[in-house]
Amino acid sequence: MPRSSHGYDEYKFREEFLPPDLVIVIADMESFINRINPEEQYSGDLGFLSTPCIPRSRLCMWIREYGVAGIARVYMHRPYLLNEDFVIYFAYTGRVDILQFLHDKGMYLSTFAMVAAAARGHLDVVMFLSDVSYWHELARVRASYQGHVDIVEYLETYEYMHNLSNEFTCVLQPI
User: Does the residue 71 lie in any domain?
Assistant: First the structure.
């Protein structure tokens, strides 16, 4: 076949277009990231007893339906979207499979993810994040405040085994 006389064959158009089914998902992810106030979301004091910011319901349903396979597609096209905000959301919802995927890809998992998972009672997520060194002392406080005794016991044992306990950290007891 003869070459085009207009020279279009010389250009390498490498613009990566999104698959049509990911357009709305990516838009929802970008709007979620843009509306979070980091100072409010990741406070290190006991004021962090509120629920983390949650994405739109259609994005939550998409994540629940497609799981790791869907997140792998997002990672392939827009890896920058899978930041700390989503890591905390995945921990909050107990998605240890997605956190494992992100960790295997070399992404940073937040210590606040441990706090969110402990507050929600997701022992498997807390154990995974502890195993990959994302421990946070506030996690035990949040778990205790929410009445998750199994997580408090696990974290106390983890702190003892790794000599992480702080003699000045007191645990809130549920009333």
Answer: yes
Is 53 or 4 the better-scoring residue by pLDDT?
A: 53
CA 52 to chain centre: 11
> What DSSP string runs through 96-160?
HHHHHHHHHTT----HHHHHHHHHHT-HHHHHHHHHTT---THHHHHHHHHT-HHHHHHHHHHHH
How buried is 34 (Cβ within 10 angstroms: 0-12 exposed, 13-18 middle, 19+ buried)?
A: exposed
Residues 6 or more apart whose Cβ sits within 8 Å of residue 68: 97, 98, 101
Q: How many domains does the chain have?
A: 1
105 found inside a domain: yes
Q: Render pLDDT for 129-151 as a digit per residue (tens, 0 to 9).
A: 999 988 888 999 999 999 999 99
The domain in which residue 123 lies consists of: 17-161
CATH of the domain at 70: 1.25.40.20
Report whether 94 contacts 67 (CB < 8 A).
no
For residue 170, tell me if it sits in a domain. no
pTM of the model: 0.76
